[in-house]
Amino acid sequence: MTTTTPSISATPDGAGTARPTQPVRPARLMIDAPMRAFHWLFALSFAGAWLTAESERWRDVHVTLGCAFGGLLLFRLVYGLIGPRQARLSLLWHRVAGLGDWLRNARAGRVDLPRAATLGMGAAMLLLLVVAAPLVLSGYAGYVEWLGLEDAMEEVHELFANSALALVMAHLGLILLLSIRHRRNLATPMLTGRLPGPGPDLVKANRRWLAMLVLATYLGFIGWQTMQGDAGGAIATQGERRGHHHDDDD
Asked: Topologically, how does it sit relative to the membrane (predicted)?
């Protein structure tokens, strides 16, 4: 319900009269905390893995972020199956399913460009989830040199990485386009979880505890992998030193 806040204005005889000001627009809770945590950690992992992909020096960081990316994908799939209605994968599919109706209207000469942008944004997100699985699997197969197919897996991995990047850029571009059209930042709800406007909250429980668990697991995995890498580097260094000592003795 829209509410107004009265303000007091003075009259010539000194009496105050109440005058309503601009209505205060409430904000509805639309996205719960676990979904927001997943979104930003997923984006951070992909961006970090992309930036470290071509560097041998940062190879361990690339692998760690890739594994974290895969873990987040697994969480999203499980949460999309057993989580609340607003997080269900079926809801995302239902939004994209309207593409067929849009195409029929477009062929009939009724082209709805704003709806096309909305459908495109949903389709990009759905396709990104689809592409993420082979992206992670091909990267891991190349890393462990599965069946001696590391060269082939590297090419497959690069193909899916480029596809994922194209989908991310399309998603961001459509968000910018719709934000300009609606004259409000459509990325804000993914930060606050709330969308301005009257009406009830679509998300009944924010589940902040689950978001904190996802974040703690993510940071714990990154920290554990970092410690493992440091330990491996120390062991390798000690081995090199022993080799040098043996050479000197000879």
From this structure: Multi-pass membrane protein
Structural domain boundaries in the chain: 27-223
pLDDT tens readout for residues 124-153: 888 999 999 999 999 998 888 777 778 888
pTM above 0.85, yes or no: no
Domain 27-223 in CATH 3.40.720: no
d(CA 58, CA 64): 10
User: Percent of the chain having pLDDT more than 70?
Assistant: 79
Whole-number Å distance between alpha carbons of 81 and 87: 8
Does residue 200 sit in helix, strand or coil?
Answer: coil
Instruction: Measure the CA dihedral 11/13/18/20, to 10°.
Output: -10
Instruction: Output the six-digit token pair for 213.
Output: 């668990």
Separation of alpha carbons 244 and 219, rounded Å: 38
Collapsing DSSP states into helix, strand and coil, what is residue 204? coil
In sequence order, what are the residues at sequence separation of 6 or more whose Cβ sits closer than 8 angstroms to the Cβ of residue 174?
117, 118, 120, 121, 124
**Other beta carbons within 10 Å of 23:** 11
